[in-house]
Design goal:
With 415 residues, the protein is α+β, with helices and mostly antiparallel strands. The protein is built from ten helices and 16 strands.
Length: 415
């Protein structure tokens, strides 16, 4: 993929200082750190390395500056996704996979913006509990399932739109050595794999009702514990009676939960997961242009069906930056989580058990790590001849590399 001509880093370098000054006192430390990281990403400010093609007849030399590796940086997510997927490849099972999405309604999203860690945590907990509980119900699947859940907080126009994407294998382990019989009642037998019905995971309406109830119960609980803060137009919600009145209509609204058709196979599942697990609020590929009057970017208007759905939007530079930084997560908040059979503590044992039941051979062991003293090899081959690129020099931030790059070879990132 060709490198975009316009990047988030360019917008922050050109307009970030003015935005910081205009919003002094209203910018979080985490937002400032994200801005600084993206502005410095893959520049001399972070240091880097020099690599040379091992083919002596070629000898192409590049200078590559280090990545910031901030999880909100669009340029750093490709390598992060590849590393994450390399770890997950051994966990994919030869069964259909389903994509389930839980979305918070707009009123809850409003208070989530002022209470990110608490409300996003509730979203994860309620969505996972609803899915695990309905799957375990003998009236539905009657099995313990595994879930990989990813938090996204944005809509296509960079608005605040918190929702969780779940990737779920189409089946699970029977509960406590039982499996449902023809009438749906548990029957004692050896633990076995319980598969979903063809092209059907779980009833969306049932999931939606339970998700709604769980979120409302959790909201009432954290409010009673004084864990929610309210500012501006929402300040009145700090009162218990007002908050209770605010919750009432949410009990009657329809909450958005949907499940997509199963994926084509393990390879397609991995590719699909990669598009969600390390996505940022907006990619550099969606940026169209920037001038003093605004930033133009591509977005999808989901109210429109057909080719007219993808169009462009122009925002003033400061408004664009505000919307982008709206999606900075609290420090230490995990946006990718695993539940049920895929929970970290028991994942390996559960997957081994499932593979045995499905008569699937164990995955190949990972490639051994390079022996100490072996030269570091870049993952991307030489663009001139395809040979391996060997790192011959490391330099720290502020230092000038001793070696020179081949013409047009400075700034290529491989870190």
């Amino acid at each position: 993929m060709a490198r975009p001509t316009l990047e988030i880093a360019d917008i922050l370098r050109d307009h970030g200082l003015g935005w910081r000054d205009a919003n002094a006192g209203h910018v979080s430390l985490e937002q400032l750190k994200v801005m600084s990281a993206i502005e410095r990403c893959r520049t001399a400010a972070l240091g880097g390395h020099v690599a040379r093609c091992e083919n002596s007849a070629c000898g192409a030399t590049i200078i590559a500056y280090n990545s910031c590796r901030n999880r909100h940086c669009p340029k750093c997510q490709g390598s992060a996704a590849r590393e994450w997927l390399a770890e997950r490849m051994a966990e994919v099972l030869p069964v259909p996979y389903y994509h389930v999405v839980y979305t918070l309604p707009a009123p809850v999203a409003d208070i989530a913006y002022q209470n990110k860690a608490v409300i996003y945590g509730i979203l994860f907990k309620a969505a996972s509990e609803a899915t695990l509980r309905i799957a375990a119900d003998p009236k539905h699947l009657g099995a313990r399932i595994g879930i990989t859940a990813v938090l996204h907080t944005w809509g296509s126009a960079l608005t605040h739109h918190p929702h969780v994407h779940m990737i779920v294998p189409g089946g699970g382990l029977s509960l406590d050595g039982t499996a449902p019989d023809a009438s749906g009642h548990p029957k004692a037998q050896k633990e076995r794999w319980v598969a979903c019905k063809p092209n059907f995971f779980l009833p969306v309406r049932v999931l939606s009702r339970l998700f709604r109830r769980l979120v409302i119960e959790m909201l009432a609980a954290v409010h009673a514990q004084g864990k929610l803060k309210f500012f501006g137009t929402l300040a009145a919600l700090a009162d218990k009676a007002v908050f209770g009145h605010w919750l009432a209509p949410l009990r009657e609204d329809e909450w958005v939960v949907y499940a997509k058709e199963p994926f084509g196979g393990p390879d397609e599942t991995l590719r699909y997961m990669a598009r969600y697990t390390h996505r940022t609020a907006i990619s550099n590929q969606r940026l169209v242009s920037m001038d003093e009057s605004g930033v133009t970017f591509k977005w999808k208007d989901y109210r429109i069906d057909g080719p007219g759905r993808t169009t462009t939007m122009k925002l003033a530079p400061h408004e664009f930056i505000r919307r982008f930084l709206m999606h900075v997560l609290p420090k230490g908040f995990h946006r990718i989580r695993h539940y049920g059979l895929l929970a970290s503590g028991t994942r390996a044992a559960n997957l081994a058990k499932v593979r045995a039941l499905l008569k699937v051979p164990p995955p190949k062991p990972p490639e051994p790590a390079p022996a100490p003293g072996e030269p570091r090899v870049l993952p991307c081959p030489c663009k001139s001849c395809g040979g391996r690129m060997i790192v011959i020099e490391l330099f720290l931030r502020g230092e000038v590399p001793r070696h020179q790059a081949s013409p047009s070879r400075i700034g290529i990132d491989t870190s």
